[in-house]
Design brief:
13 strands; 5-stranded mixed sheet; 2 domains
């Protein structure tokens, strides 16, 4: 386990007053909570963004972005930005937009499925569309043999305090009694404050942790076919 993840789990144990042997919560359990906390944080705010290249294919209508995509942020084709429009808005561009063909000028986005995109008009020839999307982190995982996490945290260490509170809050909920639920609420409110701060900062800029990939989107639709605690706990608990 990397030192950073170990320190977060250790800090959570101190707050939970879980420092004696045997511990009430296994390291595997607390590591899973850390994984969940990072995922919730990244889902709420674009702390991580990835890039992907999509090569259009003649006759293909829609394409799928990677599974870690939360929301499409921007796109371009041949050096020019592509407006991101809804299925309703594209009707204002062309009443017959589903039949139009030519060079891609817009990207139609399904608000109910941000992993699905539809270039407009349908490309007559292969074109490369470059996209940047708000992404989820990889799962930390757990190795039974080494009793260690498989991956490391991807978000900045500035969010470690919030992630610690997430672990504490969710761990307290394991008990289910009134006192533990109250302590859980206090901790999860602190985690909520971290999410608020993350959203506030993300309005000004995206994370520098941008990964460029050679991901090739899968065609999801073809013409005529388809795709593929304790009283001495800290911090007021």
């Amino acid at each position: 386990m990397a030192e950073r993840e170990l320190n977060i789990v250790k800090e959570a144990r101190i707050t939970l007053n879980d420092v004696s042997e045997p511990p009430r919560w296994s390291t595997e359990r607390l590591m899973k909570l850390l994984e969940d906390g990072q995922r919730d944080l990244c889902k709420a705010a674009p702390l991580l963004t990835h890039r992907a290249n999509i090569n259009t294919a003649q006759g293909s209508e829609t394409y799928r972005l990677p599974l870690d995509c939360v929301r499409l942020l921007r796109a371009s084709c041949e050096g020019l930005p592509l407006p991101l429009v809804s299925y309703d808005a594209i009707e204002d561009v062309s009443a017959d937009w589903e039949e139009d063909t030519g060079s891609v000028s817009h990207l139609v986005v399904n608000s109910l499925d941000q992993q699905e995109i539809r270039p407009y008009p349908m490309a007559k020839a292969s074109q490369m569309i470059k996209v940047r999307y708000h992404s989820l982190p990889v799962e930390l995982g757990w190795d039974e043999e080494t009793t260690d996490s498989v991956e490391e945290l991807e978000v900045s260490s500035m969010w470690d305090g919030g992630l610690t509170q997430f672990i504490v809050g969710k761990a307290f909920l394991d008990y289910g009694d009134e006192a533990s639920n109250s302590r859980a609420g206090t901790a999860l409110k602190m985690f909520g404050d971290a999410i608020y701060q993350a959203k506030k900062l993300s309005r000004k800029s995206f994370s520098k942790r941008v990964v460029s990939t050679t991901y090739q989107a899968k065609v999801s639709s073809l013409i005529g076919g388809r795709e593929y605690g304790s009283s001495n706990c800290r911090s007021g608990y």
